[in-house]
# Entry
Amino acid sequence: MSASGLRLRGKVAIITGAGSGIGRATALLFAEEGAKVVICDIAESGAEVCKEITEKGGEAIFIRADVSKVEDVAYLIKKTIEGYGRLDVLINNAGIPSRGTVLDIAVAEWDRVLDVNLKGAFLCSKYAIPEMIKGGGGVIVNVASVLGLVGGKGEVAYCTSKGGLIALTKALALDFAEYKIRVNCICPGSVETPMRQRIMAQKTPEERRAVELKIPIKRVAKPEEIARAILFLASEESSYMTGSVLVVDGGWTAR
Ligand SMILES: NC(=O)c1ccc[n+]([C@@H]2O[C@H](COP(=O)([O-])OP(=O)(O)OC[C@H]3O[C@@H](n4cnc5c(N)ncnc54)[C@H](O)[C@@H]3O)[C@@H](O)[C@H]2O)c1
# Structure
């Protein structure tokens, strides 16, 4: 693609949880599309993704932050503005999985999952939106899950956090449409990432194949396939979309 055709040319984009999986693939794609990428992660793997981008000639900085902590999020936004002077795009992607029913999940585990998966997006939006308003508008993409649309057996905290994230998306979309801030969310199905690999490691090869066979497309997604949908929502190509839920699940919820 020619330089003028880059879909995020000159845009400053924060991607949370960009040290791995979907966030990493999104960071690499955004950099290719001309964005100045702020890689946020609680883990040092974010520094490696940053290096990967800059070695290819892209622009990126790594800011270590825990999205569930208000002081970390305030620091993330402050450093972004100090580094790049503005903020155009926020991708709330950081998330953690969790197993358990309401009877067997520990209260501390419930709190942690809700803190990272839902409060993290609330905090990042809270600190990012004033900067977007100053800049004349912006885009937020929340990475929810099909498990925010339908129930998942034995995943009560995760499902609740993702359902909340879908509702947060719609509420934010209404509150900030007049400031030219679009807010959408994406609901991936199964994606081949380190998070999923850790979950699948507990299953036998037969059980793993059975999971794939329940997907109409008969395979899990590559992180890059989710990153492309996030790019669509982050770019002008989706200029008339706000408060929308984009399902990218190989047909899993179409059954
Ligand atoms: N992999 C899937 O099948 C799948 C399906 C649907 C939705 N999702 C969602 O996609 C998002 C990314 O998942 P993934 O599969 O790429 O996971 P991953 O574990 O590969 O990557 C998640 C990244 O988030 C970071 N992170 C975790 N807690 C954080 C915190 N408090 N602050 C900052 N960073 C933090 C981790 O260090 C990691 O680098 C998550 O929100 C997940 O719920 C994943």
In short: The longest strand covers residues 181-188.
